[in-house]
Design a protein that fits this description.
The complex is a heterodimer. Chain A is of the alpha/beta class. Chain A contains 8 helices and 10 strands. In chain A, helix 3 runs parallel beside helix 5 and helix 4 crosses helix 5. The radius of gyration of chain A is 18 Å and the shape is globular. The longest helix of chain B has 44 residues. In chain B, helix 1 crosses helix 11 and helix 9 packs across helix 11. Chain B has a 6-stranded mixed beta barrel. In chain B, strands 8-9 form a two-stranded antiparallel sheet. Chain B has 2 domains: 189 residues, no CATH class; 179 residues, no CATH class. Chain B is elongated, with a radius of gyration of 32 Å. Classes of the chains: A alpha/beta, B alpha+beta.
């Protein structure tokens, strides 16, 4: 069964009576365990698509099935609950809480998981920080970290609730190439252990770390193909040294 | 969601903008402090007034000439001369078979006249009272004695002075046995009272006390009395004795209907409850005014919370993205607002208590018997009000924060 099924999905923004269509009847499926890049220039609608898939926004028309459930009719709070349990986000600008420790930043999603309050939180946090190789910075404050370290903490935060899907919106956009590679390596490792990863990027190079690429232009999917010569972040990392 | 988390966040935000937080909280500090101060000073002032009323003496029934309803003052209190009350009325009341609970009683007349001793002279007040006066009011003699029944009926020209009057007439001299004049009639000083302080509108320490009949016949030329006070044996009998006194006076004055009474009877218990009512109203009124400053402080809190919501839009977006529901966001900002007002409230309580204490020290130094009273109620009320203000003025910003769309919040620059 497909993890994500999107059919005829459209999105039109309306500001002060002016309608701006952003997505036009998009249809595709994503299976569990995929690593997919959504690619396209700015204005192509890739970020809007990611926001709808990540349940941060609702489509104007069409259906979106997550694990077989049509979630377009869900209330805000129901959507928040699903984001908490099934979805992890990594943003271009990290979005860590300022003046807050690495540990507490990672803990954030657990605070809102009301079904498992206080259950093995410390273990989950330690595990997530180990997965991004940040165990040695547990008690640092977020503003004491470098950009690459910040993004790794953000990934740990996305991981901590063991979500089905990890959405990464231009995760390397604010990083130098070395830190960017480290981030891509972590995303590939997460995919290797079974997480579905959806990456949004405008760089072909970054996109080629995925297994499949959706190309978007003007709110439509123009191509959907598997990556033939996939880049493995580990190898490239070696080359760069 | 764990409660400790938002408190910690509030604390961090508070520290991050120390001066701004302090200014915000200052409104609450001032508001709560003024409520505490007004309540404390109100309670102390009430205590002072009540102690002055009961200072005249406890278990007293007062009779004034002229009828009145219970709530209004009798005509005589408004300066209208009513001549219906006589000393014989008091004698009738003091007979055991008439008012069995009457322990003692005194009649009063008062007047103003020129008092002279050598070169000292001043227009001042005197009071003609019965020989049993010291048994009725709480007075203590500093020196000498009070006049006797014989001196009273014999129109003796003797006087007992309040300590203030004694100093004004005789300065540093010992007044005992000295002769001074009231309205050109000579009086011999036979006693001086201890200080009692002022009661109501007259300072009893400045009076000269002379025998009732001497005052009536020699100085004033009247046969009626201005008032009388009857001491009742125990507080439990006040009601009954008051009724008895009224009955005796109606009989004396040949009055059949209660509505036709030409006298007014009050007891100190009534007076104390009336004064308590009046001072309570004043106290709550002043507290209400102090409360206005709390309102202003609350608006300051709302303002700063709205700024805080705007500054932390991305944080709100992130929290929502990772699963925070609307109520989590509301709780977080409400707790922050309450955290601010509670800190302000506690500081205000400390500040208010300190200032009230300072006020009591100053007022005591000025010679008043001013008690320092801080009630637990006022502290409890102040704390609850501080929390309530946080909730009320934090609710709007918190709801506003909870309605921010996570997507727009994350895009916000």
């Amino acid at each position: 069964m497909s993890l994500i099924v999107v059919q005829n999905l459209s999105k039109t923004y309306e500001t002060e009576g002016v309608k701006t269509p952003v997505l036009h009847e998009v249809t595709f499926e994503i299976k569990k365990g995929e690593f997919i890049s959504i690619m396209g220039p700015s204005g192509s609608g890739k970020s809007t698509l990611m926001q709808i898939l990540g349940m941060l926004d609702r489509p104007t028309e069409g259906t979106y099935l997550l694990e077989g459930k049509n979630i377009t009719q869900y209330s805000d709070d129901e959507m928040a609950k699903i984001r908490n349990k099934k979805i992890g986000f990594v943003f271009q600008s990290f979005n860590l809480l300022p003046r807050t420790s690495v540990y507490e930043n990672t803990e954030l999603p657990l605070l809102y998981d009301e079904d498992h309050l206080e259950m093995n939180n410390e273990k989950k946090i330690t595990k997530a920080l180990a997965a991004v190789d940040m165990s040695h910075r547990t008690n640092y404050l977020s503003n004491q970290l470098s950009g690459g370290e910040k993004q790794r903490v953000a990934i740990a935060r996305a991981l901590v609730n063991n979500p089905e899907v990890i959405f990464a919106d231009e995760p390397t956009g604010n990083l130098d190439s070395k830190s960017g590679l480290a981030v891509m390596r972590i995303l590939q490792q997460l995919n290797d252990v079974g997480h579905t990863v959806i990456l949004v990027t405008h760089e072909t190079y970054t996109a080629r770390h995925a297994k499949r690429i959706l190309n978007m232009l003007d709110g439509r999917i123009v191509s959907d193909e598997l990556v033939k010569d996939r880049l493995i972040a580990d190898g490239e990392g070696e080359l760069l040294k | 969601m764990k409660l400790s988390s938002p408190i910690k966040i509030s604390y961090n935000n508070l520290l991050a903008a120390k001066f701004r937080s302090f200014l915000t909280i200052l409104g609450i500090i001032i508001g709560i402090a003024s409520v505490i101060i007004v309540m404390a000073i109100g309670a102390s002032a009430q205590q002072l007034i009540l102690s002055q009323v009961s200072g005249i003496g406890s278990n007293l029934v007062s009779v004034l000439p002229g009828g009145s309803d219970e709530k209004g003052p009798p005509a005589s209190a408004l300066g209208i001369v009513v001549t219906t009350l006589k000393e014989t009325d008091l004698e009738a009341i003091l007979q055991k078979r008439n008012v069995p609970n009457a322990a003692s009683g005194s009649a009063y007349v008062s007047g103003v006249g020129l008092m002279k001793y050598r070169s000292n002279s001043a227009e001042s007040s005197f009071q003609g009272v019965s020989a049993s006066f010291p048994n009725v009011e709480s007075v203590i003699l500093k020196s000498g004695r009070f006049f006797t029944n014989e001196e009273e009926s014999g129109l003796a020209r003797v006087a007992v002075l309040g300590p203030g009057r004694a100093v004004q007439l005789f300065g540093n001299e010992d007044p005992m046995g000295k002769v001074f004049s009231i309205k050109d009639t000579n009086f011999t000083v036979i006693g001086v009272f201890e200080e009692r302080g002022s009661s109501g509108f007259t300072n009893t320490d400045d009076l000269a006390y002379i025998p009732l009949e001497t005052a009536q016949k020699i100085l004033l030329g009247i046969s009626h009395i201005n008032s009388m006070r009857i001491k009742i044996d125990s507080p439990a009998n006040m009601e009954r004795a008051t009724a008895d006194v009224k009955y005796v006076l109606r009989t004396q004055h040949k009055i059949k209907n209660v509505t036709d009474e030409d006298f007014s009877v009050r007891n100190t218990a009534q007076a104390i409850s009336t004064i308590t009512n009046i001072t309570n109203v004043l106290k709550y009124f002043l507290t209400g005014i102090a409360g206005i400053s709390l309102l202003v402080g609350g608006i300051g809190i709302m303002n700063i919370m709205l700024i805080s919501v705007n500054q932390r839009i991305r944080e709100i977006g992130l929290r929502k993205a990772v699963g925070a529901r609307a109520r989590h966001i509301i709780a977080q900002f409400l707790i922050e607002a309450v955290f601010l007002t509670l800190i302000g409230g506690l500081a205000g309580i400390v500040f208010g208590i300190a200032l009230s204490f300072l006020a009591s020290v100053v007022i005591n130094a000025l010679g008043y018997k001013w008690e320092f009273i801080i009630s637990l109620t006022s502290i409890g009320v102040a704390t609850s009000v501080a929390i309530l203000i946080g909730v009320i003025f934090g609710l709007y910003p918190a709801r506003k924060a909870s309605r921010i769309s996570p997507m727009e919040a994350l895009r916000y620059e």
